[in-house]
């Protein structure tokens, strides 16, 4: 199997506490993966390490066909290499229209001078409409982002990430604060996005994870406790003890 991202033997301590402990994780170029685990299992720290926000004490993080190490790259370089991260709280510009938000995202990524040189073209207009369609907001392009529901803001932000054409999308607790209908649409969206790229979803909501219908990695005390289908990991006595059974 081809691997897009390979994390191997990674550890990270904070004041002597091992938040990540000899963690290994790999994802294919086209794959949807859910990461679950109790509070403090290391899920956020794992994403911080992949995106360059936190430097591990040991281990490797390798990326792409050429297995380049990400460890020496800055957060901005890692984003440009093709890793997009969606934080839990949406951070869209509420006073701007959806089209303006998406325009900023199109301009943003590739170095500071791109913003200066960037001019709207017919192509960029088309791309903005495509991005809005892709996240189910095609009919709201000229509405202000502040008028969107919480779930719709999350989709807009995913659209803004897609503007940068990430090969790997990391999504932190998308279901939080969403209505049931929004959660259902979000699972559909994430599954569709993962048909052409790698998507890692960190989530506590087990119904949401079930609907993602993908391979699940269970983290516990900074290591992988179990991996496989949700049914497989749910039947694991260790997983039941530390997470699902509580
Ligand atoms: N910058 C930091 N300084 C000190 N301790 C930290 C830091 N970042 C994380 N930790 C600790 O590392 C452990 C793992 O935290 P992390 O946030 O990665 O877990 P998590 O699985 O994302 O939890 P949650 O589900 O609650 O978001 C926790 O015990 C946390 O307190």
From TrEMBL:
Q: Which residues form a coiled coil?
A: none
Question: Organism's domain of life?
Answer: Bacteria
* GO annotation, cellular component aspect: plasma membrane
Q: Does the keyword Nucleotide-binding apply?
A: yes
Membrane-crossing residue ranges in chain numbering: none
Q: Name one GO molecular function term.
A: ATP hydrolysis activity
Q: Pfam families, per this entry?
A: ABC_tran, BCA_ABC_TP_C
Task: Could you list this entry's UniProt keywords, alphabetically sorted.
Answer: ATP-binding, Nucleotide-binding, Transport
The record places domain ABC transporter at 5-246
Q: Which InterPro entries match?
A: AAA+_ATPase, ABC_AA/LPS_Transport, ABC_transporter-like_ATP-bd, ABC_transptr_urea_ATP-bd_UrtD, BCA_ABC_TP_C, P-loop_NTPase
CDD domains found in the cross-reference section: ABC_Mj1267_LivG_branched
NCBIfam families (alphabetical) = urea_trans_UrtD
- Spell out the protein name for this chain: Urea ABC transporter ATP-binding protein UrtD
Q: Give the originating organism.
A: Paracoccus tegillarcae
């Amino acid at each position: 199997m081809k691997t897009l991202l390979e994390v191997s033997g990674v550890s990270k301590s904070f004041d002597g506490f091992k938040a990540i402990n000899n963690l290994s994780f790999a994802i294919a170029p086209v794959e949807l993966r859910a990461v679950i685990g109790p509070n403090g299992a290391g899920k956020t720290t794992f994403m911080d390490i992949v995106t360059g926000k936190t430097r591990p004490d040991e281990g490797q993080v390798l990326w792409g066909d050429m297995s380049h190490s990400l460890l020496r790259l800055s957060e901005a370089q890692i984003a440009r290499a093709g890793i997009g991260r969606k934080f839990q709280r949406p951070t869209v510009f509420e006073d701007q229209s959806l089209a303006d938000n998406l325009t900023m995202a199109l301009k943003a990524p590739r170095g500071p001078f791109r913003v200066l040189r960037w001019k709207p073209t017919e192509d960029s207009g088309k791309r903005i409409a495509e991005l809005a369609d892709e996240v189910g907001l095609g009919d709201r392009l000229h509405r202000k982002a502040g008028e969107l529901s919480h779930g719709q803001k999350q989709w807009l932000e995913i659209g803004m990430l897609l503007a940068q054409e990430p090969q790997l999308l990391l999504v932190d607790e998308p279901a939080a604060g969403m209505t049931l209908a929004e959660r259902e649409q979000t699972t559909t969206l994430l599954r569709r996005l993962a048909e052409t790229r790698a998507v890692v979803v960190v989530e506590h909501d087990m119904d949401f994870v079930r609907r993602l219908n993908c391979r699940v990695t269970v983290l516990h005390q900074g290591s992988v406790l179990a991996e496989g289908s949700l049914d497989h990991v749910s039947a694991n006595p260790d997983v039941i003890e530390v997470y699902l059974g509580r």
